[in-house]
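4.2 Preliminary Data

To establish feasibility before requesting continued support, the project team ran the inverse folding procedure on a target of 123 residues. The structure was first converted into the token representation described in Section 3, and no sequence information of any kind was made available to the design step. The complete token record follows.
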């Protein structure tokens, strides 16, 4: 089951990130707001990419799928490290805002996964 298929996770993630950004801008913290916005967008792209990567890995030949998964998973981590470095170079506030955006999207994804779980039936 795809958590991004119904698009609620993406919309809630973007709306929450936008509200946090507006709050940071109203508080007078432009760099923090920029980090929240960019961190939210990057996180949603990252989580969507991981979902697609997992689906592609599990849908075909296991040996090729695992090689495909590990190659692109390492590429995802390299991109993540590069993004963290860029946010830190912009400013520490931008980096912390990006972390806040990431954890917001992670919380939305965890709540969505929790709501879509199949609990064991006790008889």
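Position-by-position output of the design step:
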């Amino acid at each position: 089951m795809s958590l991004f298929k119904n698009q609620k996770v993406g919309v809630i993630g973007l709306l929450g990130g936008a509200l946090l950004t507006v709050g940071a801008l109203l508080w007078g913290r432009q760099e923090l707001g920029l980090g929240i916005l960019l961190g939210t967008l990057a996180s949603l792209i990252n989580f969507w990419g991981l979902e697609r990567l997992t689906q592609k890995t599990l849908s075909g030949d296991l040996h090729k799928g695992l090689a495909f998964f590990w190659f692109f998973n390492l590429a995802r981590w390299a991109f993540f490290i590069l993004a963290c470095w860029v946010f830190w170079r912009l400013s520490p506030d931008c980096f912390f805002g990006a972390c806040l955006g990431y954890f917001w999207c992670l919380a939305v994804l965890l709540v969505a996964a929790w709501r879509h779980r199949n609990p064991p039936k006790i008889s």
